Structure prediction request, 283 residues.
Amino acid sequence: MSYAVGDVIAPFTINAVSEDAMKDWAVFLADPNPIHLDVEVVKAKGLGDRVINQGPINVAYMMNMLMAAFPDGTIEAMDSRFLDNVYGGDKAVASGKITAVDGNRVECEFSLDIEGRGTVNAGTATIRLNA
Amino acid sequence: MSDEAEFPPAPQVAGTSLDGTRIFTVSAEENARLCRSVGVAPAADGTAHPVWYYVATQVAMGKTVAGVCETCEFDVEDGPMMGSSGVRFSGPIMVGQPYKVGGEILSLVRKKSRKLGVMDVLTYRLRLHPADGGDAILETDNVWVLPRKELA
Prediction:
């Protein structure tokens, strides 16, 4: 495959962020923070009226987009900033574009956007293309 | 007078070791479950989903999240917030491969923001090594925001 600066990366979409996935991640992360599990706690803390997705799940969505876009490559580096919460039931879309191509390395910028609320994560990545 | 002079300095925690003793292994079952939870199928080549970088380093570092907060004299119940996460891979995370974690706190900087008031910005670095030794297969820098309600 060939890549060029400005190429748009095919989006990766989660139609409804899963509350069951948050329960799984509480186990993976060994972190039973109730803001991911109990909507009443979220309400009590004034953080909204739905449970909040664990941050690294949002990173995984963006990684999924990159892995699908570069089946002949691997993620060498990735930086992402957490700008806002993602809630259970949100429709999340990871999208991005290529910003540089240098030999077997491709630089990308990307974001994770929530329908109706805008960007909640943004970042950059370097993909190493396999020989 | 600067804003910083209005409140006491952040605890001096830079250099605190986060080296872990726990061995962390991603099983095929766990990897499949994690992949399903984020909407993809597991890879067929034995590599784990790369987001395990975050999970493995957090779970197998030498302190719990609450423990890291305590080191920073911050109550985890006050709600630490993820600011950013960066990772640099030199190799993939493999299913069934045992790993261990090394790392340290890089900095804790007290700031004042219009949105959050007084907060401490915590940066720590973790590395994932094969459990039997050798170079790290990844290094991650995580930044957490610790809102200091008591200083607001």
Remarks:
- The first strand of chain B starts at residue 24 and ends at 25.
- DSSP finds three helices and five strands in chain B.
